[in-house]
């Protein structure tokens, strides 16, 4: 009689045990939670929304220096320039606003998005250049000042709005998310670093004198005025520079992998407020 | 007289050949080494994982060859190929190994 | 270059980026400080292996594989080890 009970129990356990997770099943919302929990548990004294301030959320001395310059933010000129560019029509009479929802005001937190028509990730920088080209204008460099000014202005109009990145129910969108995740964790360059090496394994630590930012919220303050660069830098510029710093040959700005990793990181920052444009050491 | 001239000719030709065999690397040697390095770097490019030092070694190789310093040029080309192969190995290993770092 | 120069130079070992080492300025703190190396790594082969490719011992390490990725030559690694044994 006992043996029969044991066998029944074993069969019951087999039927109701959690099925083994298929190797390639990915659950972005579960990963989102794990990602957020990792950082909030690692830094219990950092308020959730403060992660968007990158190294300043990690280092009190650095924060004081930052607050000291905040009365005259170094990115102000870029915001003004971007506003002026938005107000200036293309040769054909259209404006940037005509390419975006709500005339491009207060929409930055929705980027990147997955375009189910074209089957690709559309970042804000890409959308701006496509807007230009659709209206007979030449595309801007993704790493120079015009693009930085445009995105600085758009970020500024979205200050405080929470990231709202969607992954539509489309296997291509999920594939883009996964590709971005893969890019983020893949070691590259002669120095063998992944993005995670610095921004997941070592946030708050410093390399020489530079404090490393946490990956959570890391794009929320873009574009940034970097004192080290003596100027503004777009998301494209930052990705290219990071690749070079690990001695990897950078991809072309807005390469599919760059757009996918921006998609992944932005989704992971859902709910955190846009803080751009930002200032960094 | 005929035999002497033939011998002399033979000796001269042998000397010239021997000298050629001992000569330092040639353009042809460089071309072979450089082509191998370029092919490897192209493979790394297809994997989207080229390294900056590889590109630097390729440039240095080209520059040395242009200046006729084939020894240096071949040295740099071989270094470039080694770097390219290391970057290929990294990309292939990381294609699966990347998952080790995922936050769970 | 001397072992110390190799260790401190940004284009070579660049060790100070992550490690505090006696004699170096403005070190990072990503990795442990490196005092008492002779007593901590009595086996030279072990220390050499860490510099050559620490991923073999710790797959998630952020230490670059100086040997495997051809960042330093075997001689240069030897010189760095010699230098570290003086710290």
Explain how this protein is built.
- The complex is a heterotrimer of chains A (281), B (104) and C (87).
- Chain A has 281 residues and is mainly α.
- Chain A is 44% helix and 7% strand.
- Chain A has a single domain (37-281), classed as Cytochrome c-like domain (Cytochrome Bc1 Complex, Chain D, domain 2).
- In chain A, the strands form 3 sheets. In chain A, strands 6-5-7 form a 3-stranded mixed β-sheet.
- In chain A, β5 and β6 (231-233) form a beta hairpin.
- In chain A, α5 crosses α7 and α8 crosses α11.
- The relative contact order of chain A is 0.17.
- Chain B has one domain (25-97).
- Chain B is elongated.
- Chain C has 87 residues and is mainly alpha-helical.
- Chain C has a single domain (3-84), classed as Cytochrome c-like domain (Cytochrome Bc1 Complex, Chain D, domain 2).
- Chain C has helices spanning 3-8, 37-40, 44-53, 74-84.
- The relative contact order of chain C is 0.22.
- Chains in contact: A-B, A-C, B-C.
- Chain A binds chain B through residues 31, 34-35, 38, 181-182, 185-190, 192, 194, 196-197, 200-201, 244, 247-249, 251, 257, and chain B through 48-55, 83, 86-87, 90-91, 94, 97-104.
Task: Summarize the SSE layout with pairings.
The complex is a heterotrimer of chains A (281), B (104) and C (87).
Chain A: H1 2-16, H2 28-42, H3 55-58, H4 60-69, H5 76-87, E1 113-115, E2 120-122, H6 124-134, H7 145-156, H8 171-185, H9 195-199, E3 206-207, E4 210-211, E5 224-226, E6 231-233, H10 235-245, H11 256-268, E7 278-280
Parallel strand pairs in A: 5-7
Antiparallel strand pairs in A: 1-2, 3-4, 5-6
Chain B: H1 2-22, H2 27-46, H3 52-66, H4 70-97
Helix pairs in contact in B: 2-3, 2-4, 3-4
Chain C: H1 3-8, H2 37-40, H3 44-53, H4 74-84
Précis, in short:
By secondary structure, chain A is mainly alpha-helical. Chain A has helices spanning 2-16, 28-42, 55-58, 60-69, 76-87, 124-134, 145-156, 171-185, 195-199, 235-245, 256-268, and strands at residues 113-115, 120-122, 206-207, 210-211, 224-226, 231-233, 278-280. Chain A has a 3-stranded mixed beta sheet. A two-stranded antiparallel ribbon of chain A has the order 1-2.
Question: What attributes characterize this protein structure?
Answer:
heterotrimer, A: 281 residues, mainly alpha, Cytochrome Bc1 Complex, Chain D, domain 2, two-stranded antiparallel sheet, 11 helices, 44% helix, B: 104 residues, 4 helices, elongated
């Amino acid at each position: 009689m006992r043996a029969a009970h044991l066998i029944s129990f074993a069969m019951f356990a087999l039927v109701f045990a959690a099925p083994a997770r298929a190797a390639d099943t990915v659950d972005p919302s579960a990963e989102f939670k794990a990602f957020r929990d990792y950082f909030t548990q690692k830094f219990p004294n950092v308020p959730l929304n403060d992660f968007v301030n990158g190294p300043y959320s990690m280092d009190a001395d650095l924060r004081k220096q930052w607050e000291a310059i905040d009365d005259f933010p170094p990115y102000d000129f870029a915001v003004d320039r971007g506003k002026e560019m938005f107000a200036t029509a293309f040769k054909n009479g259209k404006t940037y606003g005509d390419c975006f929802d709500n005339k491009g005001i207060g929409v930055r937190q929705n980027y990147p998005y997955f375009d189910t028509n074209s089957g690709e990730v559309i970042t804000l920088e890409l959308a701006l250049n496509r807007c230009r080209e659709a209206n007979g204008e030449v595309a801007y460099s993704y790493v120079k000042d015009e693009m930085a000014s445009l995105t600085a202005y758009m970020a500024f109009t979205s200050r405080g709005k929470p990231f709202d990145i969607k992954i539509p129910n489309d296997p291509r969108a999920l594939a883009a998310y996964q590709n971005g995740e893969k890019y983020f964790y893949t070691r590259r360059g002669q120095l063998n670093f992944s993005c995670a090496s610095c921004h997941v394994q070592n946030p708050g630590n410093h390399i020489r004198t530079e404090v490393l930012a946490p990956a959570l919220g890391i794009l929320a303050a873009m574009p940034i005025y970097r004192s080290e660069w003596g100027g503004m830098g777009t998301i494209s510029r930052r990705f290219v520079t990071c690749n070079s710093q690990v001695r990897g040959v950078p991809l072309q700005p807005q390469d599919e992998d760059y757009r996918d990793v921006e998609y992944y990181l932005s989704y992971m920052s859902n709910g955190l407020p846009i803080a751009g444009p930002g200032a960094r050491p | 007289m005929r035999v002497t001239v033939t011998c002399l000719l033979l000796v001269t030709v042998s000397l010239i050949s021997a000298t050629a065999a001992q000569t330092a690397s040639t353009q042809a040697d460089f071309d072979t080494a450089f082509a191998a390095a370029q092919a490897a770097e192209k493979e790394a490019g297809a994997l989207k994982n080229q390294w900056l030092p590889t590109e630097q070694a390729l440039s240095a190789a080209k520059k040395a060859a242009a200046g006729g310093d084939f020894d240096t040029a071949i040295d740099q080309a071989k270094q470039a190929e080694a770097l390219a192969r290391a970057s290929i190995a990294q990309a292939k290993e990381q294609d699966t190994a990347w998952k080790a770092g995922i936050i769970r | 270059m001397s072992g110390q120069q190799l260790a401190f130079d940004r284009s070579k070992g660049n060790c100070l980026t992550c490690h505090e080492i006696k004699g170096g300025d403005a070190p990072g703190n990503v990795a442990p400080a490196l005092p008492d190396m002779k007593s901590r790594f009595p086996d030279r082969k072990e220390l050499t292996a860490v510099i050559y490719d620490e991923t073999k011992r710790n797959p998630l390490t952020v230490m670059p594989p100086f040997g495997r990725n051809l960042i330093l030559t075997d001689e240069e690694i030897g010189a760095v080890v010699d230098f570290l044994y003086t710290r």
